[in-house]
Amino acid sequence: MESHHDRGGLVGPILLIGVGLVFLLTNLGMLSTSIWGVLLRIWPVILIAMGIDLLIGRRSLIGRMLALVLILAVLAGGLWIGGVRIGSVQTGQRVEGQAVTQPLGSATRGMVRVDPAIGIVEAGALESGSKNLVEGNIALPRGADLTKAASVSGDTASLTLRMNGSWFGPSINDDDSMRWTLNLNRDVPLDLHFNIIAGQGLLDFSNLKIEALDVESVFGQTEVTLPAGSYRAHVSGVFGQTIVTLPANAGVKVKVSAVFGSSSVPSGYTRRGDWSYSPNYDSAATKIELAAEEVFGQVVVR
């Protein structure tokens, strides 16, 4: 009886190699971090590559070689059309979004949930003394709309910003058509939740007062800068890169995990079971508990 061994498809390994090269070139400064916006725009190219693989890639050795050449050509062409240039950044005309403002009112703390689904999310701090919980600008892809839900309960002002609608997949327009820029009140304690399905998170919380923090992403790069204080933070991703920057001289307890990839913590940290502790953790007046996870990719705590 003749046996056949299925070697599997070509698209998966090529994508893993490609994402690894993206990380390498980005870390070397040869690619801008806006590469994630480009990858969002060319997602149909992945479907085309999978179709080529299924059609001719598993029939014979010649078929596999032909499929490999075609897949690489399609992916390279898609990246070129999408605007990737080694050593430079391609930009387009900025798309005007809709302004978002939520007053703080009489509340003395805030709870904010941001569910952009796709796009680039930038977060920072408002000027001291601001009367608003959140100010910002949100640009959405064609077919999507913004749902805003605000309420006040006791001393807590809550705000949820969510993208929904009939859009299908990421926009093929410029990155600015999927950009969320939000600034939060720096004077009151905040409970923050960010959920990015596909895209890039540039979240600078260094000037905020955090009570609790939860950041989740499925595909893309997430950069989080943490503030001083005592709180728990959870930053996780499925496929991509997670970078967390700690405040100077903070007492930190951190657990990092990369199932298929790499992870790192600052030098000098002491390992105790699943957790790593900063040298000053036991004597620190304020303490941060951080869990940072990635399934496929890289976790860097620095």
Residue runs with pLDDT of under 50 for 5 or more positions: 1-6, 84-95, 168-174
Average pLDDT over all residues = 81
Describe the global form.
flat
The overall number of domains is: 2
- By DSSP, the count of extended strands is 15
Strand content: over 45%
Largest sheet: number of strands, sense, barrel closure: 13 strands, mixed
**Category by helix and strand content:** alpha/beta
**What is the rounded Rg?**
22 Å
Report the helical percentage: 10-25%
Structural summary, described in words:
There is one protein chain. With 302 residues, the protein is an alpha/beta fold. 20% of the residues lie in helices and 47% in strands. The chain has two domains: 11-86, no CATH class; 99-301. It has helices at 11-27, 35-41, 43-56, 61-82, and strands spanning 84-85, 88-89, 98-103, 109-125, 132-138, 144-153, 156-165, 179-184, 189-204, 209-225, 231-245, 251-264, 270-272, 275-277, 287-301. A hairpin with a 2-residue loop joins strand 6 (144-153) and strand 7 (156-165). It is flat. Mean pLDDT is 81; it is low at 1-6, 84-95 and 168-174.
Descriptive terms for the model:
302 residues, 13-stranded mixed sheet, 15 strands, 20% helix, alpha/beta
In brief, what are we looking at here?
By secondary structure, the protein is of the alpha/beta class. 20% of the residues lie in helices and 47% in strands.
Question: How are the secondary structure elements laid out?
Answer:
Blueprint: H1 11-27, H2 35-41, H3 43-56, H4 61-82, E1 84-85, E2 88-89, E3 98-103, E4 109-125, E5 132-138, E6 144-153, E7 156-165, E8 179-184, E9 189-204, E10 209-225, E11 231-245, E12 251-264, E13 270-272, E14 275-277, E15 287-301
Parallel strand pairs: 4-7, 4-8, 4-9, 9-10, 10-11, 11-15, 12-15
Antiparallel strand pairs: 1-2, 3-5, 5-8, 6-7, 12-14, 13-14
